[in-house]
Amino acid sequence: MKPRVILLLLSSFLFGADAQAQVNNSLDPERLKQNVKDFDSFLRRFNFREDPMGEPIKDTAYAYVKVAGTDKRINRRMVLPFLFNQELLLSKQQLCQQFMDQVLKEKRTLSFFDTDWYVTQQSTVSHKGAEQKVLFSLQIETYGELGSKFVICGLDAPFLLPSSPYNKDRLLHPASNETSFITLNAALEDGPHFRQYLPRTYEADALTALYMEVLNGNHIKYLHGNDEPQYHLLQIEGWALIVKHFIRSEGPAGWLIADLMRVTDAEKELYVRDVLNVRAERR
Prior knowledge:
Layout lengths: L2 H13 L3 H5 L5 H4 L2 E2 L2 H8 L16 E5 L2 E5 L1 H4 L6 H6 L1 H14 L10 E11 L2 E13 L5 E9 L27 H5 L17 H10 L4 E6 L4 E4 L5 E8 L6 E10 L2 H11 L8
Parallel strand pairs: 1-10
Antiparallel strand pairs: 2-3, 4-5, 4-7, 4-8, 5-6, 8-9, 9-10
């Protein structure tokens, strides 16, 4: 389906049956792009504190948008579809509707200071003179009246976790206990082969490796982000949302819901661990 057709469908949903005739006449085409300019604006529109034209909403039940010289009354149900990427709205129509129905029924809102949402940033860093790709995961920590800050909570950086092939000669001998484990000294000096002395089940943590790198010489320098960040919203019971930035000439643009998934609590834990690389206990 072409973008203009999608735009007309969304406009009809929001403004009524006569919307198609009005698109080319009464509404400013630039405003019809419904550009959600930043993540804060996405949150305000999701919470029905900002209308599709970017204007603040004073009443929480409804708002007015000027169409063809008259004020059209709109409510939150009419606005929510404009926060979905158009391809998602078409490919997962029933799922999107179920999500919106739950949000409206439970009167759910999103806050920047929620604990259960994350930002991922694909980036390039310099490590000992070589450029490397990394994925940072960050979240907000709040401190009451003292304010808040972003913290790095997860990291995908394979170059910080060099693999060491199995070597039968690198081991703590089964009789080491008879010598009070004196061979631990050799293990602790075995540098990149130290993995050989750890359990097969041990999972290396890139964030801990980064901490040690910075602590012991600061060999890493942040160069730049490779693209716009992505937002992973897990606050709403039973759902995971991914918000990305979309640039297009027609239809809703800016920060929109790019994907929507039903998740159990167990699946949410796996998502945080495996997708966001967060190993610390969730708050």
